[in-house]
Every structure is written in C-alpha cells, then in structure tokens.
Design brief:
transmembrane helix; DUF3817 domain-containing protein; 4 helices; elongated; mainly alpha; transmembrane; 0% strand; 86% helix; 107 residues
C-alpha cells in the first residue's frame, strides 16, 4: 500500500504542476522548458510506475477489474488522485482492521 500511496502523490503533484503551471507557461509565455521538464518524467516514468503499483495493489487485494480501471483513470485527472488515494487507503485499513483486532485478542 505504501508504494501505491507514494506513486499516487508523486503522480498527482506532477500532474497538477504540469496542468496549472507548465502548460499555461508554454501557452501564454511561450516557454516550454518547464512543460518538458515536468511532462517527460510524469508521462514516461511516474504514470507508468503508478499503473504498475495500482496493478500490484489490484492483484494483492483482488479488486474487481472495474475498480482498478477507475483508480488508474484517477491518475490522469488533476486532484482526483489524492481523493481516490484517501478512499483506497481508508477502505483497505477498514478491511484489515477486524483481522488485526482478532489477532491482538487471540494472543
């Protein structure tokens, strides 16, 4: 879960910087340096790693395919990555909480 959380935050931050800082600079100030510096790492490194970590989480937790697709799509909409990450973490913690209580009580 930690890998997914890190990649969700990194991907989300880079996407926000790209959409709200780099692209407007490129369009209005005709300066494409930041869009290249942020866009290439986001598109070639961070988003593919986000896809892999989401797939790994999907495989481990055994989500339905539709849920994995929605989590993957959250990585392309600014700010949605953070919202979905919080929901996923809360859901996973809720699922593992009864198991933790049982283990603690049984010891």
């Amino acid at each position: 879960m930690t890998r997914y959380r890190v990649m969700a935050y990194v991907t989300g931050v880079l996407l926000i910087v790209l959409c709200f800082v780099a692209v407007p600079l490129k369009l209005f100030a005709h300066n494409g340096v930041l869009s290249t510096a942020v866009g290439i790492p986001h598109g070639m490194v961070c988003y593919p790693l986000y896809l892999l970590t989401t797939f790994d989480l999907y495989r481990r937790v055994r989500w339905p395919l539709s849920k994995m697709v929605l989590v993957v799509l959250a990585g392309i909409i600014p700010f949605l990555t953070f919202y979905i990450e919080r929901r996923v973490v809360a859901e996973l913690r809720e699922q593992t909480a009864p198991a933790r209580r049982t283990d603690a009580a049984g010891v």
